[in-house]
Request: fold
Amino acid sequence: MTGQWKKPAASGLQVAVHIGALLPLLWLIVAINQGRLGGDPVKELIHYLGMGTIRLLLLTLLVSPMAKTLHFGQLNRLRRPLGLWCFAWATLHFTAWLALDLGLDWSLIGAELIKRSYILLGFFAWLILLALAVTSVPALLKKMGRNWKKLHGLLYLVVVLACWHFWWSVKSGWIEPAIYAAVALALMAWRRQTVVRWVKSFR
Amino acid sequence: MLIKSPPRHQLSEQQVTPESAYVSRRRVISGLGAGIGSLLLAGNARALDLFGGEPDKAAPRKPLAFTPQKPAPDLVLTPQAKVISHNNFYEFGTGKTDPAENSQGLKTEPWTLTVEGEVEKPGTVDVWKLMGEIGLEERIYRMRCVEAWSMNIPWVGFELGKFLKRFAPTSRARYVAFETLYDPQQMPGQRNRYIGGGVDYPYVEGLRIDEAMHPLTILSVGLYGKTLPPQNGAPIRLVVPWKYGFKGIKSIVKIRLLEQMPPTSWNKLAPQEYGFYANVNPKVDHPRWSQASERFIGPGGLFAVKRQPTLPFNGYAEEVASLYSNMDLRKFY
Reply:
């Protein structure tokens, strides 16, 4: 069954994903060079990268519902670039915190990771994203077979960890993290059968 | 695809566009959620707003006559531009640049301050008259925010204790309560919970009487030699240098001397995270982050930012530690 509208080529959309994820980073470089990140630029930078990461994460999860609803299977080809960009932004977010906020002071980093629960949550989420990024090579997908699906189902856990991390990191004003959590919940509810199947696959 | 990040040429265009037109146009643009790039950027409007350049509607500041601090402490000052653009004043929004953007229309003149409660001579003073007669002095203080950043700021003001004595506190006065202006018409954060960060307004703060009478505690009316800009708490605010910044209540309209400990805004919002005392203490962490060190906001950009150790009582232990000699500072945080 095909839709009534002319679908754009998936390769064109992939280019759009790359440009869309890259341009805000270029903007960031300009902003840094011109001292436009305000009085506390480190915090602004970390928040900017964190917000980009969570949006890319939710966008990644939006792909398959869109593909199904629009009867546009080719859209699924956007999952990999979106997921990889999400990992790239997460890595920048994490690196900015390590290098610019804590100045690569490893004893302080260790203490913060252990003592600050929201940082630990974010760190776990990043570790999972790292594993997913490494195994995203198409050759590994074939080689790993069912295990690949099991591993990549961990993205659902990343969503939970990321929303939680956001929730705990704000000083006050739960509304913004709540909006993100609600969107995440809706995206998870839409694919609840897939999630249940994924959980059962470990039995 | 729509990318909100304005190219350089738009910066100059904005300077010739009336501010109101510019703002409404920007609202239209942020309402369009087309493209991934704009999606990534839209919620970072705070960062984007920094492209707005110098506000040309900045509230005027008057030069003050004051005694310079001698000897001045050996501190690298935070540049004035950062002191007046990086603020927490939730009545004008929770973003750090929101207060500077949204508060310039605050009507600070005339302004009266009422002192009442456990005093023999309650009264209301004209703050602008007070500035002329009380004898202002400069105080260069460290300022440590509970969010683990800090600044060094040259305030202009007078000792709270000397001021309170004019009203003859009674022997029952054990605490001092402060209240910020409540004016939802002028303060968008008081109209809307989302803008105001969920704080129960008016903002209230409090000190124990000995803290209030301590010579380091001042009511500030200026910084960098001029009257305060609205975002820093014009026309009159509290500065208690050994406590976290949120104790420094802004735009004060009322001071009450009390027998009982008064409620304080952040303590009401999250009692397990913010105590009444809120003394700067590197050994007592915030439940969600460490207070052992801080990012100092000084001259220079992103790569000049330095993390420095936080000092007990923010470096004023010699002067104030004795106030708390018999207290468990973990319990009374």
Observations:
- Chain A touches chain B through 49 residues (CB under 8 Å).
- Chain A has a mean pLDDT of 91.
- Chain A has one domain: 10-200.
- DSSP finds ten helices and no strands in chain A.
